[in-house]
Amino acid sequence: MSQQEAERRRHQGERDRANPDAHRIMSFRQWCELNGISLATGRRIISAGIGPVIIQLSARRIGISFAANAAWQASRARGVA
Known about the structure:
By secondary structure, the protein is mostly helical. It has a domain at about 20-75: Orthogonal Bundle (Arc Repressor Mutant, subunit A). It contains four helices and three strands. The chain has helices at about 5-20, 30-35, 40-50, 65-75, and strands at about 25, 55, 60-65. A three-stranded antiparallel sheet has the order 1-3-2. The radius of gyration is 15 Å and the shape is globular. It starts with a helix and ends in a 5-residue tail after the last helix.
């Protein structure tokens, strides 16, 4: 393992310990409720490819990690004009 890879893994471990909930998964319905959107709007966002990274939990069920939701929300932020 290279020095750079070892450093990256060390930093990742520190982030994981700092926020253990980041890897928890919420259901699609919970994600929609958390973000104040309807299920139909959530499906449109995911289908358009502009939503958070999703996790395929089973053949018919998806989920979103709290970390992916936070990253998606941050990407949607806009400054005051």
